[in-house]
Design goal:
It contains seven helices and eight strands; from the N terminus they run αβααββαβααββαββ. The protein has 186 residues and is α/β, with parallel strands linked by helices. The protein folds into two domains: 23-56, no CATH class; 65-183, Vaccinia Virus protein VP39 (Rossmann fold), CATH 3.40.50.150. The protein starts with 8 loop residues before the first helix and ends with a strand.
């Protein structure tokens, strides 16, 4: 006897909340999930490249506590509009990591060469708002719309990691970005 099962959206969401067996990719926008970067390539690369795609918010991850061994948050934090949101997102990573779990964060660097002109215009501003900018975001039809970014300054990513309760193992800069490798204590 052959049994066929189909997974509804609700069952898929429940599974995301209760049992992590595959890597998960998260996007706040349903549209982002439909056209997720690399999704087609990953599905054609074989079962080792599969991941489950979940709609959710970085400041309130839809996962149980301590269910992941690792978390990668590249190009996430610099899109969040406030210090409180950025801290909440890093605290959520801490929450979903199991003991000894590792995290990698990547953010845009205020001192990066691609931001030379922006930096020069903003040096007279107070440090707490200096890195908050709007930049053009190209749309498929050729138009561009302003999009918020927070450009991280020296020591800012490190402070977030520590305040969120993670242990910062390595902090470095490369290719106009700042990176942090962190670990959750047991």
């Amino acid at each position: 006897m052959t049994t066929t099962t189909s997974v509804t959206k609700r069952e898929r969401s429940t599974r995301a909340l209760t049992n992590v067996t595959l890597p998960y990719a998260l996007d706040i926008a349903a549209m982002g999930l439909e056209g997720a970067i690399g999704r087609d390539r990953a599905s054609s690369a074989g079962p080792g490249a599969r991941s489950d795609w979940v709609q959710g918010d970085a400041v309130g991850l839809p996962f149980r506590d301590a269910v992941f061994d690792a978390c990668i948050a590249i190009a996430v934090l610099h899109h969040l509009p406030s210090d409180a949101d950025r801290l909440a997102a890093v605290r959520e990573v801490h929450r979903v990591l199991g003991p000894g779990g590792r995290a990698c964060f990547g953010v845009w660097d205020f001192e990066g060469p691609r931001f030379d002109a922006i930096r020069e215009d903003r040096l007279d501003l107070p440090p707490e708002v200096r890195g908050d900018v709007e930049m053009p975001w190209p749309l498929p039809d050729g138009r561009a719309v302003p999009r918020y970014y927070h450009l991280f300054q020296e020591g800012e990513l490190e402070a977030l990691i520590i305040e969120a309760g993670l242990h910062g193992e390595t902090f470095f800069r490369a290719s106009g970005n700042r990176y942090a490798l962190a670990r959750r204590h047991g």
